[in-house]
Amino acid sequence: MKTQLDSILQSAEREITSVKNIHDLLQMKSRFLGKKSELMQMMGQLGRLPAEERPEFGKNLNITKNRILELLENREIEIKNSNYATSLQTQATDITMPGRPFPRGSLHPITLVWQEIEDIFISLGFEVAEGPDVEDEYHNFDALNTPPDHPARDLSDTFYIEDDVLLRTQTSTVQIRVMQQFKPPIRIISPGSCYRNENDASHSPMFHQVEALVVDEGIDFTHLRDILNIFVKKIFGEEIDSRIRPHFFPFTEPSAEIDILCVKCYGKGCNLCGGSGWLEMGGAGMVDPNVFDMLKIDSEKYTGYAFGLGIDRIAMLKYKIPDMRLLFENDIRFLRQFKI
Ligand code: PHE
Fold first, then answer.
1. Are 212 and 188 in contact (CB under 8 A)?
2. What are the extents of the domains in the chain?
3. pLDDT band at 202 (very low <50, low <70, confident <90, very high)
4. % of the chain at pLDDT higher than 70
5. C-alpha of 233 from chain center
6. Ligand 1 atom at shortest distance from the alpha carbon of 213
7. 285 lines ligand 1 (CB under 6 A)
8. How far, in Å, from the CA of 90 to the mean position of ligand 1?
């Protein structure tokens, strides 16, 4: 009997120490200690032994059983610990690994130019003003000295929403809003969207202008000329001159169109400037006294200049964008090129 117990214990020791996972270990437990196990069967036979042998044998049975239990428990701890150690190794986070690249967007070329324009004018002492895209005829036309029969009011140019409600065709509306609200001295720019019913490679139904308005005592045309020159050189480079040509706008007198030296051929004449050596940038002029009178600003005391430049046009020239429609198609391959 004693030798039988020893051999059970020996095989239990051998087998339990070689078990590799919890599942096999549980099976082993039922094999050595379950109802049908050799050990349990021996326990069942205990009653048939002579009374004097029972205590000694019972004691040995229990010792063997407890020893096997102990072996099983120790092995279970060992297996769990080693599982934990491998999972620590295989599932560990390597904090020295480079991170996954974070996809970054880019600013739209118009936004880039818009910000640059604001920075330049702020550095020249201007403030930035805003006005609504949806306007009335008063701010878009009447107060800008544009009579009711002016062709610009025509439905073919202006998007009307209702009678007297329209999408502004120019940022000059903000001139009026600023002069309604503030007394001179005034020195603002106002970048924003404008809308006109036109659509081709150099015109989009929605486009962007930056307006400037300066009103004070003693403002004259040389101030306008000077600030335009400074701005053009800051945004396009020292070698780019600007010039003005006589023109007409209802709300400025005298009025002018602003050209810059062609950024491609520097005045020699090329396909970009149509051979003229110059590129059109926008309109300008001295605020018409009629406008001041309508807004109850003393036109004897104050004079002012205003200009409006195309932001999209500046972006196209700066970034050599050949077709205005590229700016508004939102093709990601196009936009990605403006990463900074
Ligand atoms: N608003 C004019 C346009 O859209 C430009 C302009 C602005 C002209 C300010 C004179 C003064 O064409």
1. yes
2. 2-90, 109-338
3. confident
4. 99
5. 30
6. 9
7. yes
8. 69
Matching CATH number, 109-338, of 1.20.1300.10, 3.40.50.80, 1.10.260.40, 3.30.930.10:
3.30.930.10
Identify the residue whose tokens are 């009335």: 136
How do strand 206-216 and strand 303-310 relate by DSSP bridges?
Answer: antiparallel
Closest C-alpha residue for ligand 1 atom 4:
170
pLDDT at 275: 95
Alpha-carbon distance 96 to 94, whole Å?
5
307 lines ligand 1 (CB under 6 A): yes
Q: What is the mean pLDDT of residues 134-155?
A: 90
Would you say the CB of residue 184 lies under 6 angstroms from ligand 1?
Answer: no
Structure-block tokens of residue 258: 């602003």
Q: Measuring CA to CA, which residue among 162, 202, 200 is closest to residue 310?
A: 202
Q: How far is CA 204 from CA 68, 195, 308, in A?
A: 88, 8, 17
Confidence of residue 133 (pLDDT cuts 50, 70, 90): very high
What does the radius of gyration of the chain's CA atoms come to, in whole angstroms?
A: 44
Report the residue count for the chain. 340
Residue bearing the CA closest to ligand 1, atom 12:
283
pLDDT digits over 101-112, tens only? 888 888 999 999
Name 309's Cβ contacts closer than 8 Å, sequence gap at least 6: 209, 210, 258, 281, 282
Distance 172 CA to ligand 1 centre (A): 6
C-alpha 234 – ligand 1 centre gap (Å): 21
Average pLDDT of the residues in 243-272: 95
Tell me the whole-structure pTM to 2 decimals.
Answer: 0.73
Place of tokens 């050799």: 38
Q: Is the pLDDT of residue 1 over 80?
A: no
Only one residue has tokens 């196209």, namely 316
Beta strands 186-195; 127-128: pairing state: parallel
The token pair that represents 247 in the structure block: 């023109």
